[in-house]
Automatic annotation (TrEMBL), chains A, B:
<dbReference type="InterPro" id="IPR019888">
    <property type="entry name" value="Tscrpt_reg_AsnC-like"/>
</dbReference>
<dbReference type="InterPro" id="IPR019885">
    <property type="entry name" value="Tscrpt_reg_HTH_AsnC-type_CS"/>
</dbReference>
<keyword id="KW-0805">Transcription regulation</keyword>
<dbReference type="GO" id="GO:0043200">
    <property type="term" value="P:response to amino acid"/>
</dbReference>
<keyword id="KW-0804">Transcription</keyword>
<protein>
    <submittedName>
        <fullName>Lrp/AsnC family transcriptional regulator</fullName>
    </submittedName>
</protein>
<feature type="domain" description="HTH asnC-type">
    <location>
        <begin position="4"/>
        <end position="65"/>
    </location>
</feature>
<dbReference type="GO" id="GO:0005829">
    <property type="term" value="C:cytosol"/>
</dbReference>
<dbReference type="GO" id="GO:0043565">
    <property type="term" value="F:sequence-specific DNA binding"/>
</dbReference>
<dbReference type="Pfam" id="PF01037">
    <property type="entry name" value="AsnC_trans_reg"/>
</dbReference>
<dbReference type="InterPro" id="IPR011991">
    <property type="entry name" value="ArsR-like_HTH"/>
</dbReference>
<dbReference type="Pfam" id="PF13404">
    <property type="entry name" value="HTH_AsnC-type"/>
</dbReference>
<keyword id="KW-0238">DNA-binding</keyword>
<dbReference type="GO" id="GO:0006355">
    <property type="term" value="P:regulation of DNA-templated transcription"/>
</dbReference>
<dbReference type="InterPro" id="IPR019887">
    <property type="entry name" value="Tscrpt_reg_AsnC/Lrp_C"/>
</dbReference>
<dbReference type="InterPro" id="IPR000485">
    <property type="entry name" value="AsnC-type_HTH_dom"/>
</dbReference>
Amino acid sequence: MTELDELDRALLRALARDAMQSAGALGRTLGLSQPATWRRIRKLESAGILRGRRLRLNAEALGFGVTVFLGVKLATKGRVSLEDFERAVSAIPEVQRVEHVLGMYDYRLRVVARDLPDFERVLRRRIMTLPGVGEVEANVLLSEERRAGPIG
Amino acid sequence: MTELDELDRALLRALARDAMQSAGALGRTLGLSQPATWRRIRKLESAGILRGRRLRLNAEALGFGVTVFLGVKLATKGRVSLEDFERAVSAIPEVQRVEHVLGMYDYRLRVVARDLPDFERVLRRRIMTLPGVGEVEANVLLSEERRAGPIG
DNA sequence: CTTGAAAAGAACTGCCT
DNA sequence: AGGCAGTTCTTTTCAAG
């Protein structure tokens, strides 16, 4: 287990605010030199805590104005393997996220579509035809807020 | 509306695979020079399609081994404003995401905790005491896959 | 930990096709 | 649009305190 000190946590909080700032700029806000800051970032990366950065794409600007969360129950549990379902669902480009969960549903999917008619097409021709799919429940996204979450 | 050509889409797909690659390396795979690639990235950013990068933090390595999705119905709709609920829920550090949705639930929350006892503490002392909260349904995350989603 | 420096590479600018 | 050449900035590594 990697022990984080207060500087590491401040560093991660600052990077969560702006993932693209340079090690020099980060060090200035932390009271560290550029090499010291850079070494801490490297350490957090090799410890597996910091796993790089991911693109922030604006689905709306790309023409995908509808985001829907689907709760999926598998109908024929045991007859169709989870792997079959996951492989089939991963081939649907409109699916942004596949979450295997425990509880009222077996899977939660995040699906984007251009508009509601487009979403109906995805739902009827792609989702409802997935192997083993049973009950499906939908929630349309109105707005969302992402937060950094707890650090250490 | 910004019109994307095939190069822009290939560029976004490549960046979705590796958000940290340089404009030069990207250009080599696209058959473009470094400045041309860089100018396309700039254009996508100022068009609002590319909204920078965000940190990929490993919650597991930070000691947060439990992720739970909560579906929340507001009990006293109209009596407590959505703003009150959102303000209160945003103050809980364990909440990583707040999604306002339409359907069976009013809000979907992504919550992380160190372990199940820690999650019970968050649920009882933080979530169930939110203003206006009604029925709450939980799904524990087993595994998840993130995909780039459709581009253009 | 720091400062300073050096080399490599990436980002950015201007000009030309 | 795209390429080339050049400048600036950052990253990455080193030596020394």
